[in-house]
Amino acid sequence: MSFLKSFAAAFKGAETRVPLARSFTSPWAFASSAAAPSPFEYAGAVRRAYLDNPVAQRAVRLVSEGIGGAPLMPTDPKLAALVTDTTAGQSLLETLASQLLLHGNAWVQVMKDARGLPVELFALRPERMSVVAGPDGWPSAFAYRVGEQALTIPLLDEDASPNLIHIKAYHPADDHYGAGCLAAADQAIATHNAAAQWNRMLLENAARPSGALVYEAGDAGGLSNEQFDRLKAELAQAYAGGNNAGRPMLLEGGLKWQSLSLSPADMDFATLKAAAARDIALAFGVPPMLLGLPGDATYANYREANRALWRLTLLPLAAKILAALSEGLAAWFPDAALAIDLDRVPALAEDRERLWSQVSAATFLSDDEKRVLLGLSAQENT
Fold first, then answer.
1. DSSP code, position 244
2. Full-model pTM
3. In this structure, are 82 and 48 located in the same domain?
4. In this structure, are 60 and 163 located in the same domain?
5. Could you give the residue ranges of the DSSP H alpha helices within the chain?
6. More confident call, 253 vs 115
């Protein structure tokens, strides 16, 4: 330790931060063996989930749009403008909620003017970001890479104000990156997509395995290879596909059509698809009833399911995002806070009405104590 560091440590105490582990592999890849699945790859998983799977896309949008449109408690007007403004044409809170659900990490760049004051909060694509760790493993900067271009963004500016705000979900096995819901739902999404593809192929084949051609040879022997190939090609060209559904078939002598149907065991894929859809909803914290999934009677009605969505998913995730933004912007707004205005959330109207009635009926509480219980500030003495 140098003299200057020793001199500084004498006044502020010795360093107590433990070193963190630095991993040079993808935080979403796991060691694979002969029997293990392939490593999780984020870009492909996003396409399969958000672009190809209706259940996953609706679950993510239900959560992110709910947080993006949630009313905020009164706060500093400049802080409220930073949080509620759009970023690249999208709601900032909605974008951050989607990134946390899918990726598990969200980075917000604090854009500043010439005076060092924040003028915009820009959500960076999480798959383009990586942590640049110092000698002790703690983040010292962040690297942003797109194509052949790379940019290193320091953790703090020259005036010790933050350049980036990193919001991450909990990851039990990584010190730098969070774990998203998409990684847990990836297998269920693959199963659901495979079942949908199976249904489409069945529809193209008259919604059933059409049947089998049986050749009654008699004493003439079986079909030659040339006859077999010609027959198979003619069937594929003239009778396969949705455009040929129901078309009558003309058979030559010795050929007999034997119809086939799906057995109950073959129909298990329908049950498997419904189970995969419920697993997707579970991974993203959305009640299956709100996604229109049949066979789930956990909630008495949509109102209870919507209330559960807010209590169990939207409010905790919104609190994480708003707390991280408040902490990151504390250098400019030390006394301001960001929080959801629960009294203005329609899904929680009945809960808040009961709370207001209970607090109002408590005659042993003062007015200031009642205001605090309701999440309001105490009245100033005049």
1. G
2. 0.76
3. yes
4. yes
5. 3-12, 42-46, 54-68, 77-84, 92-102, 181-204, 225-238, 268-283, 302-309, 315-328, 349-361, 367-373
6. 115
